[in-house]
Design brief:
There is one protein chain. By secondary structure, this protein is mainly alpha-helical. The protein has one domain. Helix content is 86%, strand content 0%. The chain contains 4 helices and no strands.
């Protein structure tokens, strides 16, 4: 015989997990979508701000990597938080790159640092969203 109290508790837990998963997907989509937009700017910035050399190549290559990782995460790999952790590392690289690659342009240097901070923050938000969901599931 099925205990109605146990069935109600189970239904409540299932509903709560579904709600949390929906919020997770929305947060991951939002953070990933924003990172794609930032990557588009990073890709275009060497032409808009008129810089080249190491700064131009780095911006172009890293922009493609950020966009690819964010697209994979935002368009279906909601639970693959490692994609966001990789984007966090790319954001931190952008912060360090002006000194590591000896950027000549002040515009390129400022752009790289600002974009790197934004990418890292969005990636961290996306990654921690998934970590919070895992914690919620463990409590059930």
């Amino acid at each position: 015989m099925v205990n109605p109290a146990n069935s109600a508790n189970h239904d409540d837990r299932v509903e709560r997990v579904e709600r949390v998963e929906h919020v997770e997907r929305d947060n991951v989509r939002l953070a990933s979508g924003a990172n794609i937009l930032v990557a588009i700017w990073l890709f275009a910035s060497p032409w808009v701000l008129i810089y080249d050399g190491n700064a131009g190549w780095n911006s172009t290559i890293v922009a493609v990597a950020i966009a690819a990782l964010a697209a994979m995460r935002g368009f279906g790999a909601y639970r693959a938080s490692w994609l966001s952790w990789l984007n966090l590392l790319l954001g931190l690289w952008l912060v360090a790159a002006p000194w590591a690659l000896n950027y000549v342009s002040d515009e390129a240097r400022a752009n790289s640092v600002i974009v790197g901070i934004i990418v890292a923050a969005l990636a961290l938000w996306s990654a921690l969203t998934s970590e919070a969901l895992r914690s919620t599931r463990r409590l059930d």
